[in-house]
Amino acid sequence: MSDINDPLAWVKRAEEDYLMARSALRRKTPLTYSAGFHAQQCAEKYLKAILVSRGVVFPKTHDLLLLSQQCEQAGVAVTGEDDEDPTPSHVPLSRTLHAPR
Asked: Which of 25, 44, 18, 35 is nearest to 100 (CA)?
C-alpha cells in the first residue's frame, strides 16, 4: 500500500476486496473460498482505516476481533448487522462492508 497512514488508501483497498468478493459469488459456479478471503480482507482494511483515522497504531495482524476491539478502545463500536441505531461512534459492521454501487 502506498500510504499506510492514509485512511482513504485503506478504504480504497477495502473497496477492491469487496468487489472481488462480490464478483466471486456472482459467477455461474460461485468461488466461495475466494469470496470469503476477500470479504475478510475487506473487513480488515475497513477496521484499519478506522484505526488510522483515529491515530491508533495497530500491530501487523489479520485478527478481526483484535482490530474491532482496538476500534472500540478508540471510541468506535463495530458491531453485528442487527444493530439499528448507528451514531458517529457506532458503526454496524454490515454498513461498513457495503460499498457504494
From this structure: 18
Gap between the Cα atoms of 54 and 25, Å rounded: 33
Query: What is the pTM assigned to this prediction?
Result: 0.78
Block residue for cell numbers 483515522? 53
Contact between 52 and 5 under an 8 Å Cβ cutoff? The reply is yes
- Amino acid at position 92, single letter: P
pLDDT tens for residues 1-56?
Answer: 668 999 999 999 999 999 999 999 999 999 999 999 999 999 999 999 999 999 99
Q: Cα–Cα distance between 83 and 68 in angstroms, integer?
A: 16
- DSSP single-letter state for residue 87: B
Q: Which amino acid is at 36?
A: G
Q: Are 34 and 2 in contact (CB under 8 A)?
A: no
Q: Which three cell numbers stand for residue 42?
A: 475487506
The domain spans of the chain are 7-97
Q: Quick one: which of 59, 21, 27, 24 has its CA closest to 43?
A: 21
